[in-house]
């Protein structure tokens, strides 16, 4: 079958339009629901105080809330060497953030330090971007009668 000049021009225009359509700009990623402080799956904000967005396990957040609620039970009555924030024997300041003087056991303070050290690795904004899908020929799936063989396998 022979194509005249008008048919070839129209067919070429259709090919160009198909290529342009298939080469549309990639979709932008959905914004993170809590901005740069969005935790990766399985983690939540610790909330040792208002604005504490260190990502921890839900169990650590629950324990932190309990520690805050019981803060007065682990201080030395009447104060001591560190004033009213002096911890009872066997307790230390949690130090989850600067100025955190909630008295906890040393293992809890170590957990808070470990969570602080791992904080950035638990944020979605710091995760590697997903791999791009494999490239596909821009005319794949376009039915062009002038081609004698398929473009796509």
Task: Describe the model.
The protein has three helices and four strands. The protein has 153 residues and is mainly alpha-helical. The chain has a domain at 35-124. It has a two-stranded antiparallel ribbon. Strands 3-4 form a two-stranded antiparallel sheet. It is rod-shaped and about 95 Å long. Residues 116-129 have a biased composition (Low complexity). Residues 116-136 are annotated as: Disordered. Residues 1-29 form the signal peptide.
- What share of the residues lie within helices? 25-40%
SS elements, strand count: 4
Number of helical stretches of at least 4 residues = 3
> What is the SS-derived class?
mainly alpha
Poorly predicted runs are 23-28
Q: How many angstroms separate the termini? A: 25 Å
Global outline: rod-shaped
The SSE order reads HEEHEEH
Nearest-integer average pLDDT: 80
**Structural Rg:** 30 Å
Q: Give a quick account of the main beta sheet: strands, pairing sense, barrel closure.
A: 2 strands, antiparallel
């Amino acid at each position: 079958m022979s194509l005249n000049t008008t048919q070839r021009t129209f067919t070429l225009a259709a090919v160009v339009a198909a290529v342009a359509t298939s080469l549309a700009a990639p979709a932008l990623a959905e914004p993170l629901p809590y901005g740069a402080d969005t935790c990766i799956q399985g983690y939540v904000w610790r909330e040792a105080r208002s604005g504490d967005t260190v990502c921890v396990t839900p169990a650590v957040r629950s324990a932190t809330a309990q520690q805050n609620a019981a803060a007065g039970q682990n201080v030395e009555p009447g104060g001591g060497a560190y004033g009213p924030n002096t911890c009872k024997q066997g307790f230390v300041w949690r130090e989850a953030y600067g100025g955190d003087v909630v008295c906890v056991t040393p293992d809890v303070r170590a957990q808070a330090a470990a969570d602080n050290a791992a904080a950035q690795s638990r944020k979605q904004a710091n995760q590697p971007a997903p791999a791009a899908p494999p490239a596909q020929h821009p005319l794949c799936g376009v039915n062009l009668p002038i081609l004698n063989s398929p473009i796509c396998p």
